[in-house]
Every structure is written in C-alpha cells, then in structure tokens.
Amino acid sequence: MNDDGAPAHVTGRIRERTFSLADLPDVREFAAAEARRRGMAEGALDDFLVALNEVATNAVTHGSTKARLRMRVDGGQLVVTVHDDGRDWRPDTEPGVTPPPHNATSGMGLWVARLLAADIRVTTGQDGTNVTMRFLL
C-alpha cells in the first residue's frame, strides 16, 4: 500500500511506491517482498535492505519529504531507483566513493550503499535526485 492506503502502483514489470519518512518500515517490507518475488536469494536480502534503507532515508531526510521507489528486473539484476524532488544538492565529486572519516557519525549512507550494490549511479538536477542501484539476482 502507498502512504495514502492505495495499492502500490504497477506499470508493466515496474513496481513503484511513494513514501515519506514515517513509511520507511513499510518500504523495506515492500522492497523485501518484491526482491524475493523477483528471485533474490535470502542470503542477499539483508545487504539489499541495508543499501535500500540508507538511500531511502537520505531521500526523505535530505531531498524532499516524499520520495519514490521504483523496482524492476534488467537481465539478472534487480534495478532499484529512489527519486526525491531535492534540487539543491550539487556534489563536487561522485557521492559515496570516498570512505567517511573514522570518527564519522553520519554521511555514510551512499558509501555503504555503494559497498553493497553491484552498481550505483547518482544523478541530480532540476527534476530532483535519482539514486539507481543494481543488485545481482
């Protein structure tokens, strides 16, 4: 269900869900069920959910109050895109490539997601920010 109580939107083979900060537990549950349905092994699920949670949390705490999760399969990979409407973020370098300092208490989300995903791409512009992650199935 979406945060308004409606079923998650299905467009062909793409599953989509809009969420806010309060919806993060439901988003993780939705994503886990969808990943299993798409063939992700149980042993890979924990890493997938950690990466997803980091990116989804960033979207609704730093980007905009509402964000969108889209999931689809491309070949043998689960492709997950988290979109937020935040337009003010203009990173100087590729986000999440450099490890955070040893004493960091925040700012690790994209770095952690990059470690756990097979691939990650971050795009930002006038339409907001997209973080697209790929996970092997």
Automatic annotation (TrEMBL):
GO terms for molecular function: ATP binding; protein serine/threonine kinase activity. Residues 85-104 are annotated as: Disordered. InterPro entries: Anti-sigma-factor_SerPK (IPR050267), HATPase_C_sf (IPR036890), HATPase_dom (IPR003594). Pfam families: HATPase_c_2 (PF13581). Keywords: ATP-binding, Kinase, Nucleotide-binding, Serine/threonine-protein kinase, Transferase. Residues 21-135 form the Histidine kinase/HSP90-like ATPase domain. This is ATP-binding protein. It comes from Microbispora oryzae.
